[in-house]
Amino acid sequence: MDLAGKKILLTGGDGFLGRFVQRELVQSGVRQEDIRIPHHLENDLRVWENCEEAVRGVDLVIHLAASVGGIGFNQRNPGVLFYDNMIMGAHLMEAAHRYPVEKFIQIGTVCAYPKFTPVPFKEDNLWDGYPEETNAPYGVAKKALLVMAQAYREQYDLNAIYLLPVNLYGPGDNFDLEDSHVIPALIRKCVEAMDSGSEEVTVWGTGKPTREFLFVEDCARGIVLAARHYDEPQPVNLGSGEEISIGGLVNLIARISGFEGKLRWDTTRPDGQPRRCLDTQRAMKFGFTAEVSFEEGLTRTIQWFRENRDRIL
To answer: Is 112 contained in some domain?
Structure first.
């Protein structure tokens, strides 16, 4: 798909990932005025009429908008996570086929994978079991949208593709401890402990689970590459291919940020899924590989948080 001259609907375009996708689209030849971003306060995508209006006249839909958070947020809001994510995606895809658009990109989640998926996670493993319990309402809602995309491709010839990014991080992430993911939460705890003179940081769980992380700029580049070069029904993983334990992650963030105090593990808190690491060979077929090393990405994220903390907190 040649993106130049295309009208693009980018839901979630003013969010963490969306701002980087905007930039990547412009760098790929899309005019800024051709990118339509429905701001959630005025355009609630849980409402059918808003989705109809948003989709009219566009060539490509990139659906990033989501209700999402870390483990604590997931535990408090399972119904919200299921309903919001399911209904937004369903409304938008139905509108996209009715009007119609040339292409629809649904962003999925690594949380859709079964709790005990063999590592590295292959896209064909998606249906081999139930997701980890704290992520299940979010993951199942997103996975249902894969079924919808494939069904609409079969019945209505909608060119709908489905991408599965692994855990993202980077500048502009959510650093609110009530609903943030693990990397921004750990960065904030370490930086604030140093500034306050505290000699201890409390970390959730045991530190034994492993995770894979993808720098947000790399993810944005992968999404735009898929928009241009991928048109198949099979889901595609987007990841870095590098796995690290939560314990190793905490030590790395402490070292880069300069925190030299004690790490206290609160084992009453859940660990989440035991392991996460993706097989990314399918994405390589349309030219995607991660470029930003984990240490470089963490360094840039920590620096951004320090420079912007007073503004965002």
So the answer is: yes
Provide the terminal-to-terminal Cα distance of the chain, rounded to the nearest Å: 40
User: What is the band of 11 on the pLDDT scale with cuts at 50, 70, 90?
Assistant: very high
Single out the catalytic residue among 113, 138, 152, 162. Answer: 138
Characterize the bridge pairing of strands 244-245 and 210-211.
antiparallel
**Within a domain: residue 255?**
no
DSSP 305: H
CB 17 within 8 A of CB 219: yes
The alpha carbon of 35 is separated from its chain's Cα centroid by a whole number of angstroms, namely 20
Q: What is the domain-level CATH number for residue 92?
A: 3.40.50.720
Q: Which pTM value belongs to this model? A: 0.95
pLDDT for res 41: 65
pLDDT band at residue 42 under the 50/70/90 scheme = confident
Rounded Cα distance, 45 and 47, in Å: 5
Q: Which of 52, 85, 55, 53 is nearest to 68 (CA)?
A: 85
Pairwise pLDDT comparison (26 vs 179), residue with the higher score = 26
Residue 127: half-sphere exposure toward Cβ, Cα within 13 Å: 6
d(CA 214, CA 150): 26
Q: Is 191 a domain residue?
A: no
Secondary structure of residue 311 in the 3-state scheme: helix
**113 catalytically annotated:** no
Domain range enclosing 40: 8-170+213-242+275-291
Would 183 be classed as within a structural domain? Answer: no
